[in-house]
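Morning, I've got a small favour to ask if you have a moment. I owe you a coffee for this, so here goes:
>
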Amino acid sequence: MGRLPVSSLSISLVLALAMAAALAACAPAPLPRVHIVQPAAGGLVPLEPQIALQAVGSTIESVHLDRLDDPQAPAPSVIPAPDGWRLTAPLAPDAQYRLLVQARVTSTGFRLPWDPEPPAVIEQEQRFATVRTPRLADAPPELTARRDTPLVLRFTEPLQQVTPRAPFPATAEIDSGDPRQVKVQFAELTPGETFSLALTGIVGREGAVPGPDVELAVRTPEPAELVAISGVPVAGASATVPMEVPLTLEWSQPLRRLSYRLGDEERQWRGEPTATIPLGTSLEQGQQRTLVVLDAETAEGGWLRQPATLALSAPAPLQLAAYWPADGAVNVTPNADPTFRFSEPIADRAAAEEAIRFEPSVPGRFEWLADNRVRFVPEEPFPRETPIQVEVKAGPAGARGASGSYLIEPVTFTFQTGKLKVIDVSLREQRLTLLEDGVPVWSAPVATGVRGAETPPGRYEVLYKMPMARFRGVNPDGSRYDIPDVRWVLAFYGDYTIHGAYWRSTFGRPGSNGCISLTDANAKHVYDWADVGTPVVVRP
């Protein structure tokens, strides 16, 4: 084949280039559209978000914001700004919105003859939710605050800040690992109290959304209170505990931890919650120890209001506080009823009676005049003009007080009996006679009870003696009497006595309100002569 002329090649090249240019000019232009860059569709939108819009082949004519979750609530407007678009007011938290953008098409680009006519106006919408308000989650009606343990509160959203307010110093720390969690620490807590805790200045971390103030009721656990030691109620700074009984601390509620000092030894106890904690020791009779309760923690987290110091003591030894006849007494009537008074009530009366012995012994019985006082009533008189030895045995097997105490040393004493004394009173003769071994040794006139207040006949004995007393009462005629300084009084039956009557000038006939009255001098003679237990025989 022959070579083409140069002019033909040039024409072909020109045609090719022209065709390429035509094809390039006919390539389709981008379709008109609107793109909402901000706010983005995913995640939560801050209350003052950036508004970023893109328009291609179009011009934005309107931007509108709707509230979806609450159509009645107003939504801020979106207006043009030098750098784009902005909101006229912040968004509401916990809300859902729709952003609607409308644009007028300005360029349709390349369109084939059979393509549909593009719209004159295009729209684009974006639905989004705003950041949420931080709120306290799962708060019970009443919270419990414990000593040295922060109160942990949880919020629905991460927090940026929160301020606690209580009747005493309180601090709040947002957990760095979980900013939804806040630890509130209190100072100067007291057990068994209720107070209000306010949380203010709550601000969420996302979008700095403020949260509502919170008012909470907080209580502290009931305090640990020591109520008894070995069954003895604790009242004051001292306690007398049973002797030879293991010391046990009894609490108002179960403990799980206790710190105390007994004497010079400091001790710790931990274990399963219990309201009864043994100390592993006991006190002997008369022994004393100091107990200092340093700290305690109940099963519910309560604690001591303050350390307590208690002086513990076992009962003092039992004492024979008094007895009659006195040691060395002489001329004691053989009809005497020896009487014993102990320093505290007696727990086992039979054991106390068994501990009392007479030598020589006489048959008789014991009569308890009070919880701590007993007398021996012989069935027949003690031997006359004879030394009588009395022994009260000591030791745990003998007399024991209600506290468990007992005599450390036996008590012995001796009295000497004399003649058998009897006070004889004749109502008919209005005369009192002192008898020794049945023989009259002294006599004096008396004034006994008048009609309506007669002195009762019978066989009695001197119950007790008083050197002076005051008499008050009512006479048979209804008048009252009040006589001070009545001397040399011997009681023998209830309120009936033998006594001096300094106000009376006549004796030998009835004149009293039932008592047997003498001159003061004669009454003193009877008072000195007669012992407690001396028989008093009142004959008609």
Notes: The chain has five domains: 33-130, 143-219, 226-313, 320-416, 421-539.
